UniProtKB/TrEMBL annotation, chain A:
UniProt cross-references to PANTHER family, sorted A to Z: ABC TRANSPORTER PERMEASE PROTEIN MJ0413-RELATED, ALKANE SULFONATE ABC TRANSPORTER-RELATED, MEMBRANE SUBUNIT
Membrane topology qualifier: Multi-pass membrane protein
PROSITE patterns listed in its UniProt record: ABC_TM1 (PS50928)
Family: Belongs to the binding-protein-dependent transport system permease family.
Protein name (Swiss-Prot/TrEMBL): ABC transporter permease
TrEMBL record, chain B:
Taxonomy, superkingdom: Bacteria
GO MF, any single term: ATP hydrolysis activity
SUPFAM superfamilies: P-loop containing nucleoside triphosphate hydrolases
Signal sequence interval, chain numbering: none
Protein name listed in UniProt: ABC transporter ATP-binding protein
Organism: Streptomyces cahuitamycinicus
Domain ABC transporter: 7-233
CDD domains, A to Z: ABC_NrtD_SsuB_transporters
Keywords: ATP-binding, Nucleotide-binding, Transport
Length: 298, 257
């Protein structure tokens, strides 16, 4: 009986081989839940209300403190109130310069962050997977990492032909390390069995990287990307304040120079909202890519 | 292509650093199911890993159909104990990846994956992620994925070890029916004596680390339905258990066979 099955020359099955085996029954869940179901809207509305509540409370406190010129060690008598800021904002919204500043900052962020994300993942994977690269590159990264990106402003001004490129470089520099470091860690925590399974099925190096290592590391990579986006905003704004010509950081600093304090607050709020928006985008993309994580899959 | 391949392990020595893990001589006939049985941690799995090309032997040879094992060839496919599926790919896409690695054109992969999954009884679960499947179903997907590479040898590393008794028995039946269909050679590692006696043509008893072949038990009339209720089965089971418990009965000396 041991060698008779060899008579079957083709590996293609000819009959149902599991006719006698009990099959598992389909459960109530027969597929992935669609991402944008109509039923999600009431839930989203509730979530929106919950997010608006603390913001409204902060607005109210701000209004009360400034409208009554409260001086309690902290002095609110010179701080512009919400109404004043609203009027400045309205003025800005109708002027082209404000949008130009917003777009300039967004462009720098997306460029710097995008470059950092790509190179951080690539270099992080190389360091995490190759002992040679680890030995050669890791020391460089460890030395460069503690340097605050803002300390590079003088160097950036010296090196780059335009301030624009310098600012993108500084943003890139700051955003690079969180991505690279979290990618290196993700490489180390990847279950070995995924790669081994792929290799026994005949996967070569590149296939393993593209189909096993990269998707498997995505949860770790995205936690790095979230941190990195926050750091990128800090650095783009600071760099703009020091050496920019446009940009929301430049606008904020310029308003301060012109003693336009409500302009400063308009700038701050704009940064807050833009930062929130980009963080939301990263988060959203991450939960889409990492849909398979146990807490999302169920 | 003939279905099963012949395996020859000749003076195969495996080690982790200075720690010897296994020293094995073994011959497996094409299309045979050979079960490696030994105390846990004895190095059973390392033997499979060497055959899969995941571990380089320190001495000796491992041959599949006369060709030395090396690197990544799909002649030997491995089924792991658990969670070897790519969790971000659905059941069907896990199988499709194996098909892609075999070089099946993109257009045919879905169809072939569907056929393979239907063969292991998962026709209603194509789009489920591994995290949405039970342990038994995940092992079914793994079996389908392994079959997708058209292996001539299946190396199974305690594939049903994490399953409950009922599911395990279902999986053993499924494995046998798939094996009858494909006729691949199977090298099966377990520490479950019943499983070994139910599946194997021969059961290889290994010593504690470093794993050395101590005894090869031939199973006459293997995989007979209801075999586990016969006195012969019970006797063999007792002998092997006694041997594993380090108290060999007189008629089964460690030097035997």
């Amino acid at each position: 009986m041991t060698t008779t099955p060899v008579s079957q020359q083709s590996l293609k099955p000819t009959a149902d081989p599991v006719a006698g085996t009990p099959r598992p029954r389909p459960g109530p869940r027969t597929g992935l839940r669609p991402l944008t179901a109509l039923g999600a809207w009431p839930r989203r509305l509730a979530a929106g209300t919950r997010a608006a509540l603390p913001l409204a409370a902060a607005l109210l406190i701000w209004y009360l403190l400034t409208a009554n010129d409260v001086v309690l060690w902290l002095r609110f008598d010179k701080v512009p109130g919400p109404v004043e800021v609203f009027h400045t904002l309205k003025g800005q919204l109708t002027s082209g310069g404000y949008y130009q500043d917003l777009l300039a900052s967004l462009r720098r962020i997306l460029l710097g962050f995008g470059l950092a994300a790509l190179s951080g993942v690539a270099i992080g994977m190389a360091i995490g997977r190759s002992r040679v690269v680890h030995a050669l590159v890791r020391p460089l990264i460890e030395v460069a990492r503690p340097i605050p990106a803002i300390a590079l402003v003088p160097l950036a001004i010296l090196m780059f032909p335009s301030g624009e490129q310098g600012i993108v470089f500084i943003t890139f520099f700051a955003a690079f390390f969180p991505v690279a470091v979290s990618t290196i860690h993700a490489m180390k925590t990847l279950p070995k069995v995924w790669e081994e399974a792929a290799r026994t099925m005949g996967a070569r190096r590149l296939s393993v990287l593209a189909h096993v290592v990269l998707p498997g590391a995505m949860p770790g990579i995205f936690s790095g990307l979230s941190v990195s986006m926050g750091v990128a905003w800090i650095c783009v704004i600071s760099a703009e304040m020091i050496s920019g010509q446009f940009g929301i950081g430049y606008y904020t600093w310029q308003s301060y120079g012109l003693l336009d304090y409500s302009g400063v607050i308009v700038g701050m709020l704009s940064i807050g909202i833009l930062g929130w928006g980009t963080a939301w985008l990263v988060e959203r993309l991450g939960s889409r890519v990492n849909r398979w994580l146990p807490r999302n899959a169920r | 292509m003939s279905a099963g391949a012949r395996i020859r392990l000749e003076g195969l020595k495996l080690a982790f650093g200075d720690m010897s893990a296994a020293e094995v001589d073994l011959e497996v006939r094409p299309g045979e199911i050979v079960v490696l049985l030994g105390p846990s941690g004895c190095g059973k799995s390392t033997i499979l890993r060497a055959l899969a090309g995941l571990l380089t032997p320190t001495a000796g040879r491992a041959e599949v159909d006369g060709e030395p094992v090396g690197g990544t060839d799909t002649v030997c496919a491995m089924v792991f104990q658990e969670d070897a599926l790519l969790p971000w790919r659905s059941a069907a896409r896990n199988v499709e990846y194996a098909l892609k690695l075999r070089g099946v054109p993109r257009g045919q992969r879905r169809q072939e994956a569907a056929e393979l999954l239907a063969q292991v009884g998962l026709e209603d679960f194509f789009d489920h992620l591994p995290g949405q499947l039970s342990g038994g179903m995940r092992q079914r997907v793994q079996l389908a994925r392994t079959l997708a590479t058209r292996p001539r040898v299946m190396l199974m590393d305690e594939p049903f070890g994490a399953l409950d008794a009922q599911t395990r028995s279902e999986m053993q039946q499924l494995l046998i029916s798939v094996w009858r269909q494909y006729g691949t050679t199977i090298l099966f590692v377990t520490h479950d004596v019943d499983e070994a006696l139910l599946l194997g043509d021969r059961v290889v008893l290994l010593s504690p680390r470093p794993a050395v072949v101590r005894e090869i038990v031939d199973i006459p009339g293997p995989r007979r339905p209801g075999a586990q209720f016969e006195p012969e089965f019970a006797r063999r089971r007792y002998e092997i258990l006694a041997w594993l418990g380090d108290a060999p009965p007189a008629e089964l000396s460690p030097e035997g066979a």
